[in-house]
Amino acid sequence: MDKLDLYLLFIIQTFKRPRKKNFLFAILTGKRTGQAVTDSHLHQVENQFGLVPFLKEEIFEKRLLDLEKKGYIRIDESGVLLLKEQSETSYFKSPDWKGFSMQDLPHHFFNHLLLAVQVVSNKHHKKSQYLPIVRNKEAQLWVKRWFSKWQNDSHLAEKLFLELTKWLDSSSVLYKDVYVARFSGGDRVGETALQICERLQISIWDGYFEWLRGLHVLHLKSNEFPLLQELMISKVALLTKSGFATYDLFQKGHSFEQIVKIRQLKKSTIEDHFVEIQATFQELAVPFRPNEEVLLKLKEKSFLSLKEMKEFMPDLSYFELRLAAVSGVEL
């Protein structure tokens, strides 16, 4: 059993009740549907939300069938239910994981890092003709802008090396090679993730999750790495395209009602956007967010559904309850 199986089992057992396969797939891949956003926070699985954004549905389906054959889960018309727990799923309880607040930010960062290392290394080796290790044009433009700021700094290579060493020598990194062996520059061409995992004799998914965990920790401690921090992108990029359009209007001072009219969308759709915005920027006071006193009263209880929250505070609308569920207020 590899870490992808353990991740699936962890998500399934966290929800306690049977959940439909399409809902579980949304949680695993980080699809920000209204239900996925709300329920991931209600069941306190937001930190493990969307850890495999590129997981293909056919792989997901095959893994579920394999787990069912082995007696770990049951799949029926009610959904997927856990039958047998695995202690190894505790790997995903680590505070290192910050899934909802990061999602694919580490993936973008690592593409930037691969390019930055290549550019800085080739400059050091006075190599001006080469193919970018990452083909993505947006990533190339990002690093080009970054390098234009630093290209006249004669100590750039040393600064980058020192920050990378500080990070890679930390206890949060189990396998340095899942990062370092990917780097290209000078006459060196980096290995693929599969090649590295085969050499380390670990499964590709075990290697992937260790790679991701180290990047999550790096993002959490980004203030300690000012040069690497410049290669990280803003949380705004996490918002869905439509959610960002609503966020942009809100930041420009438009009210909830004005945004509904301007965007010509259903009120419920704009509500979904604000739940996503609140979950992404928990310090932001969005329209209809309950006051701190109400939030604290709700946080003192444990709820498995919005219906339970509504029974506890019947005067609040379901929209207000959803905002409360994702608010992140600490007791």
Automatic annotation (TrEMBL):
Residue ranges of domain Helicase Helix-turn-helix in the record = 245-324
Q: Which Pfam families match?
A: HTH_40
The entry's protein name is Helicase Helix-turn-helix domain-containing protein
What species is given as this protein's source? Answer: Listeria fleischmannii 1991
